[in-house]
Amino acid sequence: MGAAASSMPQKMDEQQFMAAAAEAYAALKAEDGTVDKTQLTMSTAGADNIILLSDSYKVSHWKQYPPNTSVVYSYFESRGGKYSEVCFFGLQYILKKYLLGPVVTKAKIDQAEAIYQAHFMGEQFYREGWEYILSEYNGHLPVKICAVPEGTVVDAKTPLMTVENTDPKCFWLTNFLETLLVQVWAPMTVATHSREQKKVLQAYLEKTADEGAIAGLGFKLHDFGFRGVSSVETAGINGAGHLVNFIGTDTVAAMNVAIEYYGAPCGPNPTPDVFPPFLCPGYSIPASEHSTITSWTKDGEIDALRNMLIQYPTGIVACVSDSFDVFKACSDMWGTELKELVLGRDGVLVVRPDSGDPATTALKCLEILGEKIGMSENTKGYKMLDPHVRMIWGDGIDYESLQEILSTIAAAGWSSDNMAFGSGGGLLQKLNRDTQKCAFKCAMAVVDGEEREVFKDPITDPGKKSKKGRLSVHQVDGGWVTKMGAEADEATSAIQPVYENGVLLSECTWAEVTGRAAIASPSPYVIPEAAAEA
Predict the structure, then answer these.
(1) pTM, to two decimals
(2) Which part of the chain has CATH 3.20.20.70?
């Protein structure tokens, strides 16, 4: 016992560990005190290393499959969740950014080996497998990915993507890629969440607005989410998910994704004298924030509001009006002292009251603005503000609060066309993988040359039962049918190849994505009875 104990490596306490780390870092410093980041094993270069873009435990899975496994076939789906249907979006971004071309190099293998050796405190890394990919495929990944076309709306519990290895020696690669591929849950869930809100907005426009108002539906929910998400990449890909349904955004990174990864147009409209004069996946307008208003001081608020009208004499301009007393701003400032300036503009002032209970505050502001500036009745009997004035509510907006505001103002006789909405964290961030219960599961494997159905069926949670066998997806009578195993018909399936061995086989254009996600009229959303009877 004593001999065994003496042969064990000496353990470090936390202080000793930190001292050793500092010593190792100091050894890398040049004379000028700088450190070459390429010499740091845990450098940011790992963000571009496909071998490091996976959960730790997957590094050990290559030796856990049955002997003589040659194919692993898995699929991705929404197993249900908040909404009964999902809008698939975001895979093309992941494929283009992370999987195209030769993504495995010797330097990346060396880097991964060093990190995993330290991470596991020993040898778990399958260097031979990655070297095989490098030597046999020049670093291209030997996998095949099939998916429904992006923008397609399918019932929950419908497979959206399948993945399988194309080289029998790389059976372990299919599910190694799960971690990265499943991140499609985020843009897909935002696209779904945004689309469900579009159904609500469309239904209220159809109920309470004049016929031509539906043309403005794309501007009714504006993305305010850039600052409310966890990273620039999240803002980009999730914000693009919103742009699948709407064309209003302040999240510039979202436009970049749509332009760079989906070919969305951005520039002058090639058709002269046709609105809009510029084509872009998302649009915005001049708008104030509290700093640009409150810097004039409380006593100078009226001058700040006047300045907005003077600086932007034409077009649409939005102005926060709740810096101090939103009701006074609507009544005494916009509605009295600045009324003539408002009515004299060649454009629309969008008043933004962003504090207080959303539904009751929005309604009170509509009533004040209508009384002070003017209102009329539209063809459906609902009240409309003077066309020089509209409102936007941009605080605390999500699927539930949006419905509450629209229901409240409709019940009071106001058309939803008076308002637009801005949503930030509630649009892009207040979601997770379980919102739509997204999962990636193995459905088939080839072992000893024979296909076997693979599935899970937990006795404690029937909702997690997975599909088995090869899969195909078909649209039948307006719904979606999944065929499994011997019944699967991959040739006629909506799931078709998009990627194989490092090459993009099929590419969606931005117009195709947004076109598939369009909502038919009338909206399938059912307006609550109280609002419908107003």
Answers:
(1) 0.92
(2) 189-428
